[in-house]
Amino acid sequence: MIIDGRRTFVWSGEMHPFRLPSPALWRDVLQKMKAIGFNTVSVYFDWGYHSPAPGEYDFTGVRDMDRLLDIADEAGLYVIARPGPYINAEADGGGFPAWLATQAGKARSDAPDYLAATDEWQSAIDAIIARHQLSNGTGSVILYQIENELASTGTSQRNYLQHLYDKARADGIQVPIFHNDKGRNGYWVPASSTVPGTVPGPVDLYAFDGYPGGTCHTDGTVGSPNNAPDWGIQGAGGAKGGASASNATPGFVAEFGGGWFDYWGSVGTYPCTAIRQGPGYERVFYGTNIANRLTVQNFYMVSGGTSWGWLPAPVVYSSYDYGAAIDEGRQLRAKAQTLKTLGYFVQSVAPLTKVDKGADVPSSSAAVRIEHTVNAETGTNFYFAVHSPSSATTDDSFTFPISTVDGSYTVPLRLHGQDAKTLVADYDLAGNHLVYSTSEIETHLRGVALLHGRDGEAGETVLRYPSSPTVDVLDGAATADYDPTAGDLKLSYSHHGLIRVRITAADRPALTLLIADEDTAAQFWRVDDLLVRGPQLVRTARVHDGRLALTGDTTAAAPLEIWGAPAACLVTWNGRPVAVRPAVGGGLVAVRNLAGPRQITLPELTTWRYAAESPEAAPGFDDSGWRTADLTVTNSTTKPPAGQVVLTADDYGFHHGDVWYRGHFDGTAPAAVSVDWGGGGAGLIQAWLDGTYLGQRQIPSGVAAPPTRGNDTFAIPSALQVAGPHTLSIMVRNDGHNEDGGVNDAHKEGRGVIGATFDGVVPSAVTWRIQGAASVDPMRGPLNNGGLYGERNGWSLPGFRDRSWSTRSLPDDSAISGTAWYRTTFDLHIPADVDASLGLTIGDPSVPHNSRHYRVLIFVNGWNMGQYIADVGPQHTFALPTGVLDPRGRNTVALAVTSDGGEANAPEGIRLTTLGVSRR
Fold first, then answer.
1. Mean per-residue pLDDT for 396-417?
2. Given Cys at both, which of 32, 209, 713, 742 links 255, Cβ 3.0 to 4.6 Å?
3. Pairing label, strands 205-210, 806-808
4. pLDDT of residue 666
């Protein structure tokens, strides 16, 4: 892709700001993405997160998007902006605001009321994005997505996309616009495409997505690898061949699997997914993409996060770790290091941005194939070696021929396990001519090149010189042989640790070759024109007035070595002076190790204030201020029984979390009441008649696409089957609105009570009153709170006065039927130079789900950080992000525990846990 007049390999990672509810976290994650080799971040802007009501976009969240884009620019990252309107993303309603569920017009169509709503959203978000475009020199936004995975291609959808495109341009969006085609259908290609079978759309680029990497078994064990697809120049082509659907635009994969989401009732597959889509997968699949000339790649997800509050769609629980390279606790997984070697490579080796398919190259082994690409302008050749099929994990040693202007050679190589390698031939390596190397290039800068290979595997690197150069093996073991006839200097070695070779030749810049095994390569960081080794993370580097200021993290005492810095510069690390001396082979090395973090001690959560709620169940509760159910028309996809008023919560403006119903009727109480209700994945319903608890039900889970609606019958005790008046109290927990991936208005499926029958008969004289969330939190937004009594009365907030409450400890030995609250405060004293990622753990994480019928909403300093469900699981530990948590002050935890009641369903123990600690 051409950016700022030069060809650039767009290497992008997905990060969702709405899943990281703090600018401090945005800065941390974006700096980490930059550090591990990304030059671009892809960002969804969630309409539903930003809009509590029609026309309202002015709460804190939408204003912070300006700040997010500023931080991305400061971090040195381009931005792919993805403002929807529809995003999917396992978010509530697929990113739609919940109030859209009550519109008459079909979503994702040219229905006038829907288009009017999207105009409001675009006006709000486009004004922010337009101010941050690279094209006008005021930011780093390079691409803009107008819709996501729109699989319907009728006239209504064509009109809809055109409307979005025209609106974006009218709002000042200048950068190229695209749509993300789910599953490579050839839908919505630019007009320049001449490929038969494609569907043209109002876009400037064609982009597609795919998640081909394999999954984990339901028991949490790692499944077998899949085959890596050729979705570019190595593939079959055509409308459904990926990039081949648009033959005049860059190969663009808008989402490529970097993990996968997990679901309610699983055993907890994120650790497994991190392995399945780990280093071997990355080398095979991402390497295949590179060999297919997919020069705009976005990996979904690179940074996990938290679907806090009521953000999750019914298919996911609170954690959105995704098995990503940067986990939910902001820690780098092992797979991040492989991403780093690939990211540095695509950004360092410029000829990779313009290649064509090269001549077929045979392999000496039928178990291996070679995909060959060539840059015709520079003559640089790339040889991608991968198993055949690429899902194989055998140990194969083989040879293959290469032929360039330098001559013909037979190259030996080995692939062991799930692995692939990209070799480079005929290339200017830091001013020296590389004939070929069986080590892979990680990066290079003036005078230094870093190569890498698997530990213990043989390697050879051939460079060309007109006369024999001086070769000094400074560290490690390597042999050097010079062929005066060809002018080739051949270095032979085994990858292990770090080999340093210094090559000095006439008419060539001196070159220090650093040849590392994978673990050693992971110790290096490329920061602008510097190469740094040692710390756990290097974030930034700034050279000014003879000073080199480095910032970064250490998780333990660590060495520091620097290449590319001025020889006499003064070095600081996180603002502290570092004594340095000249290093072997050039560069600088610290005289002493950098310090690691100090020990931190977390307080125990021993004493809790306790109060029972659910007064709505009592027959004498005053509900006169509640909303009376009086609607008879609904735009929901679920209709009430004939003759019954509309009861669904969204129709009365109650969109998230818990909603209460109280049905008043006279006459003899029935023997049973049946309730048709919508609760989303693992949703919950509880019922009382005249204050007597009838029980609870929850929607079954344990599958990736769970049911979201229930129909349950509650028996009424014979003692209550007497003449009235009576009050039926029902509480429904809404665990999210369905996504609308099928363009079928699935997000409009009713939540709360849809209908109720007494002994199978629709009652004719029931007066229903409904109460959900009382208001929208102006700081935390519409997804933070539902309609529990405690939420409506501030029990979740840090300033609430709970001194009159009783005192309890956890684990508890009894529970009420309904909801009770536990509140505590604790002080943290994390040193200012320590970044501690903390979590809250409930129960035993080794047991994904148990037999206790209770669930917990976790509020930290007023923020709803997620939902624990003991008998569903699998999540036990909930990340408490800095910014929500005060690391050097007082914090308040409030737990809303909803239980089936009794000793067997009492809440378990709870403790603070450490997810990662580093010194900054």
1. 98
2. 209
3. unpaired
4. 94
Q: Where are the beta strands (DSSP E) in 505-607?
A: 511-517, 524-527, 530-533, 537-544, 547-553, 561-563, 570-573, 576-578, 580-582, 588-590
- CATH code of the domain covering residue 852: 2.60.120.260
For strands 40-44 and 78-82, give the pairing: parallel
What is the average pLDDT value for the chain, to the nearest integer? 96
CATH at 439:
2.102.20.10
> How many C-beta neighbours within 10 Å does residue 837 have?
23
- pTM for this model (two decimals): 0.97
Q: Are both 794 and 905 inside the same structural domain?
A: yes
In this structure, the answer to whether residues 443 and 522 fall within a common structural domain is: yes
- Residue 97 CA to residue 113 CA, distance in Å, equals 14
Q: What is the per-residue burial (b if ≥16 Cβ within 10 Å, else e) of 188-200?
A: bbbeebebeebbb
Cβ 471 vs Cβ 493: under 8 Å: no
Closest CA to 529 of 582, 587, 463, 589: 587
Burial classification of residue 117, based on how many CB atoms lie within 10 Å of its CB (0-12 exposed, 13-18 middle, 19 or more buried): buried
Give Cα separations from 121 to 56, 88, 109, 173, 779 (angstroms).
Answer: 9, 16, 15, 14, 19
Q: Show the 3-state SS of 141-176.
A: EEEEEEEECCCCCCHHHHHHHHHHHHHHHHCCCCCC
Which tokens is 348 given?
Answer: 């360092």
Query: Does residue 782 lie in a domain region?
Result: no
DSSP-based three-state secondary structure for 24: helix
Q: Do 90 and 39 sit in the same domain of this protein?
A: yes
Chain segment 823-840, per-residue pLDDT in tens:
999 999 999 999 999 999
Considering the domain boundaries, does residue 425 fall inside one? Answer: yes
The C-alpha atoms of residue 652 and residue 630 are separated, in whole angstroms, by: 10
| 561 and 518 in a common domain | no
Give the DSSP letter of residue 844: -
What gap in Å lies between CA 792 and CA 800, rounded to an integer?
12
CA distance 699 to 121: 33
pLDDT at 644 over 90: no
Structure token digits, residue 502: 């210094």
Domain's final residue, options 771, 799, 817: 771
Cβ neighbours of residue 538 under 8 Å, at least 6 residues apart? 35, 525, 527, 532, 550, 551, 552
Question: DSSP 3-state assignment of 34?
Answer: helix
Residues 6 or more apart whose CB falls under 8 angstroms from that of 738 comprise 93, 94, 313, 314, 680, 708, 746, 747, 749
Domain region containing 670: 615-771
Most distant CA pair in the chain, distance:
109
